[in-house]
Amino acid sequence: MTKSKKKALLRSVGTFAIRALILVTRLMPLSVALGLGRGLGDLMRVLSKKRYKVALKNLTVAYGSSLSDTERERIARESFRHFGMFMIEAMKFPFYRPKDVEKLIEVDPVGAERFRLLMEQERKGLIVITGHLGNFEMLAHYGGIRGHEIIALMREARDRGTTEIMANMRERMGIQLLSLKQSLKPVITGLQRNAIVAIVCDQNAADVFVPFFGHETGTADGPARIALMTGAPMWFMFTVRIGHGRYRVVADGPHWPESTGDTKADVLRIMTEVNHQIEKAIRQYPEQWLWFHDRWRSSPAVRGLEAGARN
Asked: Of 49, 211, 212, 275, which has the fewest beta carbons less than 10 angstroms from its beta carbon?
């Protein structure tokens, strides 16, 4: 069997396994399903030693010597377990009734009222900035239930079968998906309709380099450019786990884009605030972030630190 055929076979098996797991988890009580998710997270950590090493490295980059080795390892383990639970929830929650979803979400009533007034009075749409913290899909699901048009920008998975499954599950939650490779025109027209555009903005990129955990870090600049182009406000929102299957919305906003006429400087300023808000949330709930993503891969400052440590 050729290498390409072997890869195709493995992808087909993987797609079948995901579909089978969706069917199984739908029948499970939530507590049992989340226990399975924690177990899957542990299995992933054991089988993917490379990812575990990335998580430990990232925790060192972020916290330096302020974390003991024991605490670093604990956060890394819990990060894998949290991701395992998130995967199970992503398969189970799209089939929940709206009233059942609402029971799982805790929202600050004062913030919710401020949010409602913004959407009704300004009607410029809203850019919601979030990260791979807690359950970011639950946030979009909740917004859709509340009657908002939700447009989510997403990166496609390498495997087409996995991408299609993810897209179908998110569309069941009322989320319109747009690939980051597509034109921004649907985003702009969506904001003009007063839609909510959700952007997960905590992965490696090389558009701009702004501080993140004390290091100049490669960061996507899309949120700043969209905000400056449309005048839409940004609101930082994270749905953090507070118990088995239950979440609290942690939010800060609105933040209005202010144009000085110097686009480059404005983008840097806005993305510095984006990274600051995401970092603040991660520091509050470090076990719930995706530490095994190679966040600092394109950052020269961190690569220099790693090279120095090897010499």
From this structure: 49
